[in-house]
Amino acid sequence: MLSNNPTSHQGGRTLPEGQALLSVRGLKKVYHTDAGDIEAVRNLTFDLGRGELVCLVGPSGSGKTTLLKCIAGLLGTTAGEVLLDGQKVTGPPKKMAVVFQEYGRSLFPWLRVAENVELPLKNAGVPKEERKRLVAEALEAVGLAHVPKSYPWQLSGGMQQRVAIARAVAYQPEVLLMDEPFAAVDAQTRADLEDLIRSVWKKLGVTVLFVTHDIDESIYLGERVIILSSSPTIVQEDIVIDLPAERDQLETRSLPRFTELRHHVYAEIQKAKQGHRPEEAITMTAK
Ligand SMILES: Nc1ncnc2c1ncn2[C@@H]1O[C@H](COP(=O)(O)OP(=O)(O)OP(=O)(O)O)[C@@H](O)[C@H]1O
């Protein structure tokens, strides 16, 4: 466990009853394939409180995407459950939005930027005037207010991912799930998008679960980092990131505490890769 950090513990952190917005309880996922069963996720339990920004890291193949799909209601669970505001998730919940890595595939090339952002609102039956306002606000929030009429293919990769983020934000979800959303953009754009996510999170108070395999990114972005073990997956550790709320790409990353957290998470991931698993994944309840 992390030295001088009493809020780091094995197993996922849970909240007292009624306080969690999103609860993952004993989640297990086994894929049945022609080649046999693959137990991708063994037993995951953790909670997200309303308005938290939590990053999830783990070795490649540890079931991050599987977990996110189960949370999003896109994939059924083998055992356990996901609860949103106390309600069991059995299909894609209205109040959840997902941003995937492949922005190129998630945007409709024949629709303009504003139309792409507007589409889920249209499908949800939001009145036209309100749609216009929400689209304008979301494009403003991601710095794309100047290109509403462009087509996605006329924009850079980073701008296209901003459109995908604007679309998720305009929908006003309670929970925003992000699956390695910046993996396909260059380093500078990635840094800008990280800052964008923190600013959108602060402004809108949305609850964010952000999956990444970039350790630095998880620490820079998160208020909490959940480390997954290697497959079959359990929560290896759940750490509070006690860095100042105002994050800055240069200053925050130069802080001794950032380095300390980075070393710790790196060492945990290395252990996970080598097959280390906590003796028992004790689930802790936050005080
Ligand atoms: N549709 C599927 N059918 C069968 N097995 C699958 C399927 N999807 C994922 N798996 C297996 O489940 C395990 C977890 O995969 P998953 O993609 O969830 O991990 P991940 O942590 O997101 O990986 P990465 O970091 O490489 O993206 C892997 O062993 C993978 O091969």
TrEMBL record:
<dbReference type="InterPro" id="IPR017871">
    <property type="entry name" value="ABC_transporter-like_CS"/>
</dbReference>
<feature type="domain" description="ABC transporter">
    <location>
        <begin position="22"/>
        <end position="255"/>
    </location>
</feature>
<keyword id="KW-0813">Transport</keyword>
<dbReference type="Pfam" id="PF00005">
    <property type="entry name" value="ABC_tran"/>
</dbReference>
<dbReference type="InterPro" id="IPR050166">
    <property type="entry name" value="ABC_transporter_ATP-bind"/>
</dbReference>
<dbReference type="InterPro" id="IPR003593">
    <property type="entry name" value="AAA+_ATPase"/>
</dbReference>
<dbReference type="GO" id="GO:0005524">
    <property type="term" value="F:ATP binding"/>
</dbReference>
<dbReference type="InterPro" id="IPR027417">
    <property type="entry name" value="P-loop_NTPase"/>
</dbReference>
<keyword id="KW-0547">Nucleotide-binding</keyword>
<dbReference type="InterPro" id="IPR003439">
    <property type="entry name" value="ABC_transporter-like_ATP-bd"/>
</dbReference>
<protein>
    <submittedName>
        <fullName>NitT/TauT family transport system ATP-binding protein</fullName>
    </submittedName>
</protein>
<keyword id="KW-0067">ATP-binding</keyword>
